[in-house]
Batch of 3 targets.
Target 1
Amino acid sequence: MAIKMATKGAIRNFHLPLPQAVYEALCAEAASLRQPATVVAREAIEAGTAADLDPSLESAALELLRGRKPRR
């Protein structure tokens, strides 16, 4: 995976404060997988989850935030 990412451009660091419970869950998952927490977090961010918004709902929310009436 590191090779794939390296070909897309430079890897940048990003500091993300996490609630204690999320931090502990991340650390526990990393320990169970025997991988660094940064690897687990990066893969989760890249893959997304079932909790992600669907595209039409996300689009409607963004339109509301921009002050437009959502399309139906």
Note: The chain is about 60% helix and 0% strand.
Target 2
Amino acid sequence: MKMTSKERLMAAITGKPVDRTPVSFYEIDGYRQPVDDPDRFNIYNDPSWREVVDLAREESDSTVWFGNGLVPVTPDPVEELTSRETWTDEAGSRFTRMTVKAGKRTLSALWRRDPDVETTWTIEHLIKDADDLKAYLALPEGPTEFTLDITPTLELEAKVGDGGIVVQDTSDPVCNVASLFDMGTWTVMAMTEKDLIRQCLDRAQRAILARLSVLATALPGRLWRICGPEYAGEPYLPPSLFREYVTPYNKEIVACIHAAGGYARIHCHGRIRNVLDEIAATGCDAIDPIEPPHQGDIELHEVRERYGDRLTLFGNIESSDLENLPPPEFAKKVATALREGPGGRGFVLMPSSCPYGRTITPTCLANYRTMIAMARS
């Protein structure tokens, strides 16, 4: 019997039979891309995006990301120590400077957003050295009680209907902590200042669980994506530190999601072969994006053979292939994923990310169509 996209995705997530392999465009879902918004920082208003957005909504099994805004019951004390300044340069790029008064030190970060790229570049990271980190750790911790209006989520779920599912999202502690540093400083500090890093991870975890317990309870039974573990993966850090910095924290996050009847998907780019056991040890229900070599270091069928009975697999189409490979060559990649992924608990055909430039090329559009056609064949 033919399933709706919502039924198909939930069956794949919960280990039930599906009528065919679900296919998701990941961030491109057809519902949240504002193709009619004229804002110059909105890449989706370029006409080339419209066909992809329509295709996602009408033909894919949409996984629609949506976050809910929690309102703290009490003010965040760090906000009183924080100032922000935003300006635009002659080239049209938007910059944001944030400074935080941390005792006798002033911590500073700088971000840049370009009009034609859907990403924010960190030009200057907040933490530069161990003394900065100590000052950061001395700051008061944020609120632990929140109010939440889930109406926006329920309205979006009603809009999506049978066209897919609305996915909730959370970072993990290593995501929040590692992003305070540039990658070189992070890797050195993670290996040489382990006590400070663990203190910082513990602090981040307290904030995450305070928020997550409210959200997961208010929105039971949803799929959650947990991002961040790749910061502690190879080649940045050895598996022993992944075991220390990721596994116990994400295990608590997964347990919080499960306690509310939800499902947890670990998002980890890059080389996962030597940490796959640790990812599974968190108790998660799914994993993405399982990048193929050479972006990753393990084949999809190997992951299915090792943990396919326990984990729903999302992937493993590399986004660079989606954007650049000629359609006949791209079709070979899709065929491999469709051969190696299904079986076990479940599989969702999905790219590792999506294009983030203003223009979608004819090649990229054709490859999106190839994903749909081959998943349905």
Note: The CA atoms of residues 24 and 196 lie 40 Å apart.
Target 3
Amino acid sequence: MRYLADTSTVVRVDRGQVDPQWIETVKRGLVAVCEPVLAETLTLADAKQYEIAEERLRAAYPWVPVADNVWELVAAIRRDLGERSAHQGVSVADYVIAATAIRLKLVLLHEDGDFETIARFIPELKQRRISTLP
């Protein structure tokens, strides 16, 4: 495993809105998801198809746990961004996803400017837009 996908990645891969090389990277099991990504992605699912959508996502991506002590890192990131007035727009899920990527030493794969903002001030966050080639 090399990447942790954000919701923006999962949705684009599901819709075929990414370069085929990324779809192949997902198929090879190199892109994982965690609970906040699953929860955010499933808000888009039809209620009648919710369980099927969850099973499909779990089958498509390796699963990684959110670290037990993630909230300490979330607080540190939040404070660091706040001191620089760079915290607007960053959701709780984004903080947890970024902290999980840092803790697990995965590259955060996204199409969300908030992660670029976090990475600008938190160099431990390695990130990449899915709109670039693998």
Note: The mean pLDDT is 93.
